[in-house]
Amino acid sequence: WSNAPALYGDLVKQLPQIEGVVGFGAHVSHIYNQGACVYITVIMKPNANTYTRLWEAVGALCKAHRATVSHHHGVGLLKSGLVKHEIPFSLLEQIKRALDPHNTMNPNKLL
Q1: What is the DSSP string of 45-73?
Q2: Crossing angle (nearest 10°) for helices 4-14 and 48-64
């Protein structure tokens, strides 16, 4: 909770500086005892470089504010590398191997 206002403030400062970002909005979409989800919507020019730079910035800001880029929607393949910096990857590997020892569910997506 205490990190959410500073995270939002840094998003406001940094995201508009990314070339191709036209605007963005944010709101608290989910509230929990342990924190809140700051949900952002970005308006951007359709450009792969802008998309990559945007998520690099969001990932760095989340890391700096002890937040996460993942929530109930997950992060998808394009942003999966960001999660490796949030959760001990060894824990994700252990869970994957325990639940799917033969790597039949979404092979090669996590490990």
Answers
A1: -S-HHHHHHHHHHHHHHHHHTT--S-STT
A2: 150
